[in-house]
User: What shape does this take?
Amino acid sequence: MERLKKELNLSSVTLGTMRFYDKSLTTNQVVELIENSFDLGITTHHSSFEYSSYELYTKALKSFRCRADIKHIVKLASPHFEDDGFSAKILIQRVEDQLRALNIEQIDVLQWLVRSKPINDKDRLATLENQRQEIKACLSKLKKEGKVKSIFSFPYSTVFAKAVINLEEVDGIISYLNKEELEYASYAEKFPFIAIRPFFGGKLIQGEGISRDNKIHDCLDFVRGHNAVLTQIVGINSVEQLNTFRTYDKRMNK
Assistant: This one.
């Protein structure tokens, strides 16, 4: 795991871009947010063409002076909800589309999803088993050609996580981890892990008592305390919100 951690060199906090559009940010505001977060050491971004914010994010990224230094976690599915099964051709095409959209040569972390409609373990495990060799060959090809540096599975369930982590082409798990969602806590101790939703959708930082900043710091510390966590994805929607992470960074580096 240490080798992978060193190779990826992800920032401890990843900028989640999903809510940019929901907050009605302008392109200039997103550029400012990217610049300020980068100066703070948040050099990893999480994005997906599925998000309504994607066009806004990619447009802003083109104006960022240090865009070549950004690490990218990119969310892609194969099969998608409507697909009949896994398709190497489709996944490779989706990866290449993202390389062009982000103007990069390599995706640092491919967040790979195996979907079904509706989402259920029976169908998804069948895909993993019945198309195992095609899946392995495709994931291996993406790595060998340098289009993807690492592959992390978003498993939807611990049952699927147990199966998919046995694929040697899969480097780790990316999923929810916070004080309320602990289903993957054991994975975050044993396998390379990327944490999503450290604040439980904001619920853990609401209410009276200790300050909001201290609540945020406490949540980040909780996730960071799991041995195999490489980074945690946080939705940051304003330069003002970055002040919390600025004080957290100073405290961690005392």
About this structure: The chain has a mean pLDDT of 93. Strands lie at 13-16, 44-47, 71-77, 107-113, 148-154, 172-176, 193-196, 229-235. The first strand starts at residue 13 and ends at 16. DSSP finds ten helices and eight strands in the chain.
